[in-house]
Amino acid sequence: MGSSTRIGDRIGRLIVAPEGAVIVGDMLSLKVCQALAAALEPRPDRNGVVSDSGNSPSDLYTAGGLFRALGGSHDLRIVDPDAVADAVDESVAVVLLTEVDYRTGRCHDMGALTATAHAAGALTVWDLAHSAGAIDVDLAGCDVDFAVGYTNKYLNGGPGSPGVIFLSEALIDEVRPELSGWLDHEAPFAFDLDFRPDPGIGRMRIGTPPVLALAALDAWEGVEMADVRARSIELSERLIAGVEASCPTLDLASPRNPDKRGSQAAFRHPEGYAVMQALIARRVIGDFRAPDLIQFSITPLYLEEADIDRVVEILGEIMATDGWDTPEHRKRKTVT
Ligand SMILES: *Cc1c(COP(=O)(O)O)cnc(C)c1O
Fold it and tell me: Which of 59, 107, 126, 152 is the best mutation target for the ligand 1 pocket, counting ligand atoms within 8 Å of the beta carbon and taking the most?
């Protein structure tokens, strides 16, 4: 039980949350569902939920399922990432956004959009799946209401490591969890038939924490996010400069300004799928995202200049020799 709040506080430090405001456990989709359900509850008179086309489809599927369970009267408004602020009006209960686009690394302005939502009387749910451990996040400074994240992405907990949820101090006492497990109870070992929520962030725990997976996150002990971010920018700038110099047929799809980019770099090529397969065959593992993106996630905890230079060299060779242009590399697999 204690490990989910202890590791929660450790991650909280990386995203500037006060102690006792973050807890880990469960898969991210469950945390998205939990945060969105709790964020909708104080605004029963409003049916609008604004999200954008840069959000992870997964979060939109989760929202759609939750709205059906709540009776089908909510209206999910998916707008262009640049049009979010204009879409927030007094009919909107919640603004649900993923801060960093999973494909291109484009970052939303969390502070400005949270202020826009609050001015219209709406609450915010920020998904930090591609932010926590990747960029500087300041939940307290941005006055965020709810945030969720994932330890299996840039926090490097490995596949199967759990989700994260944050509640603002102002909301912690108010939130009535929709999905309550025994460990969210004020006195779990009393095994009362009535649910009384834990007085703090423990009310969002749901189930038994994955203790072995949480042990991996001790790697963040003593790590400063500013150092990680500075290295991430150095390495991603090196990758972009190297790829642009050696691969003239690849176009940068990520923001050029590193302050507006997550810890990733994406390039466009019409045969991006085959290019990524050729890279994987040479043991450079990135992602392909349809229709044409080759995407690299940069994690400075274990990557260094030599790794970046090797990627640039191998990609340059593949592009120069059309090494991607084989039936084998064009063959579609389930995982891309
Ligand atoms: C990875 C990811 C998900 C999916 O996580 P699950 O493991 O399927 O719960 C959802 N949303 C975002 C933004 C993600 O990056």
Answer: 59
